[in-house]
Amino acid sequence: MVAQDVWRFALAPRLPAGRPGWGGTFAFVFAIVLTLDFAIAGGAILLEVLATEAGYEPPPYIESGLSLPWELAAMILFAPAIEEAIFRGPLAGTKAWLRFGLHMGIVIGLMIATTIFADSLPEYVMLSASVFALGVLIYAVARLRARHRAETGIPAWYRNNVRWFVWGSTLLFGGIHLWNYEGASSPLDVLLVASQTTGGLILAYTRIHLGLAAAIAQHAIFNAAFAAGSLAIYGSL
């Protein structure tokens, strides 16, 4: 039942009539969605492995340079909270969250632009863009905290077009992870972020049906399991 609902959501995202409260139903739905996340991610990773065995050469992964404790903290604590707030938070569709999403779109756009044109832009332009992006980010967070309980209405235009926001945020979430690889340009390189992209769609379901806290928890559990497996097999992340 839950798996079928996730599949229908993936094909035609829509807002639910309501959300289950904390309890047995909530835990059951969360467990099923988390299991689906692991299963589909496993399939995506297997596809990448098969492509590599067939001759595909993935671009090198860009190491973070962080120590292991900090890298674990980034994967399990910081990334889930930040990424879910930015990419899935606005999917609730309330006016406060939609305004936050607009501000985050400006921040992400500036980050992408400054990364692409880093070698051609003057240093003062790069600095100005960074300061402006930071200012927008601080304002967006402050405004959301102040207005999220007051601006709870969901515009009709969002209800009618929620699928485009879900699909768009999912593709953007997957695409952003390509920046973790040096010189990713081949069409086959999308295999490198297939698990993040499919996972992003499932996280969108979780965010809309169970809430932001559930999406953050799901993301954190997934990353923790990935980190544990990587450390057990390779001895590193």
Helical segment tally? 8
What percent of residues are in strands? Answer: under 5%
Provide the gyration radius in Å.
19 Å
Order of helices and strands: HHHHHHHH
Number of strands: 0
Shape by Cα distribution = globular
User: How many structural units, i.e. domains?
Assistant: 2
The largest pleated sheet is described as: none
Taking pLDDT < 50 over at least 5 consecutive residues as the criterion, the unreliable ranges are none
The average pLDDT is 94
Quote the distance from N terminus to C terminus: 36 Å
Q: Percent helix among the residues?
A: over 70%
Overall structural class, as computed from helix and strand content, comes to mainly alpha
Describe the structure.
This protein has helices at residues 2-11, 24-53, 68-88, 95-116, 123-147, 156-176, 194-210, 212-234. By secondary structure, it is mainly α. It is globular. The mean pLDDT is 94.
Q: In brief, what are we looking at here?
A:
The chain has helices at residues 2-11, 24-53, 68-88, 95-116, 123-147, 156-176, 194-210, 212-234. With 237 residues, the chain is mostly helical. It folds into 2 domains: 2-89 and 156-234, no CATH class; 94-153.
